[in-house]
Amino acid sequence: MDEANLIDLLKEIRKKYYLKLGNSTEYCVKDYFVLSDLVNKITKKPLEKKLDELNLFLSADTVFQSIASIKPQFLAISETSGYSQITIYTPKGTSVSALKFVGTDYNSSEKNELKNYWLNYYNNRITFKGEATYAYNCHAYAWYCSEGHSYVWINTPGDDTFWNDGSYVLTNTPDENCKVSYLGCDHSAITSSRNGYFISKWADLPLFEHLPEDCPFAYTGLKYYTYPDPTYNTVPPKPSVKTFRKDNDQSFTAAVSCDSRYNVDQYEWKSDYPSDWSIVAQNASKSSVKVYRSSSPRSCNLSARAHNSYGWGEWQVIGWLYASSTYSLSVLQNPVSSTLQVQIAPNAETQTLQDGAFAMEVTKQRPILSKPSTYSIGLYSSTGTCVYQNTVKGQGESAVNLNIDVSSLLNGIYILHVKTADEDAQTLNIVVKH
């Protein structure tokens, strides 16, 4: 059996071994030494005996059980012997449980042996960066020690805390010293100044610079993290309005957003008259809501604000909640014989402002909608035939006046139909009489 076949075989054994022990707290790459010894013992025997024993190794649970018995010695650091519990903190101040090594470390000969073993294993494609030691592991190096902190050992899921609390954020454009999380296995690294290379600590083994695939950790993908832009290390700004519309006479729909770099985790909503309007969240972050009116609601502002790990931002007025129509429909003369004069006048509501404890009332008129509406206008016979149709744009706070020629229509009752995009239609019965 040549060297290439041995390496392939070793990888297959390692894969099955790792799957069997996949629920371990921390996987230690020293299983290579254990498996290598086993393979060497097997391959010293005659070919027929080799194949029989290898097949047995790859299939028999009893063999896996015997391998698993090695776990306390070679799978670290689920056992805390030689370690003391300490608490460290992420850049945002979130506490993380860690271990400080207080036991006996490798001696110089062992460190040198481990270094040379892995350099030879990868044919010197990797670069030695630091001695083997029990003092820190991959997670500790990537997320903590490489930032200038003392050596500790961080077990999973402690490493997750560094991105879950926003201390580091995902990036699609990694540069030097980005953090790397290996998907599908329990390993962390940092990016190197050498393009395409990582630096990582291999459990209690040495620290190496290497290509992503040149390490003992199989993975299905990579995620890169970096420090958030300091500009966004603050409470969120006032949210932007994505949607605000009146669905019908009973409800509104509203939605807001903030720049994703502020890492907003939730929104809060309020109306000036909470007892008159019910606000119902449409998603977990409450970025979208439905607002339902009571039987006799007072018109008022709907406001929202955003929250992240730094706290709450300022309130932003999102829209004006109202129960009445935004416009009044009228005609100058009815019955009519030649020209039907239609007027569409935007409604204005009286808003009462109170000045402190003296409750001095000041009233002002304000249009219900801040932007002009577009009106779809139709005139229909009693049988439903459309005899006139037009679309006109509102003039802000000014009334829209429209003349409809009815001189050619037969005598009878007609229906004037006016609708905006956000409201139910208004109708008037028109009598044409020549």
From TrEMBL:
InterPro entries xrefs: Secre_tail
Domain of life: Bacteria
NCBIfam families: Por_Secre_tail
Lineage of producing organism: Bacteria, Pseudomonadati, Bacteroidota, Bacteroidia, Bacteroidales
Protein name per its UniProtKB record: T9SS type A sorting domain-containing protein
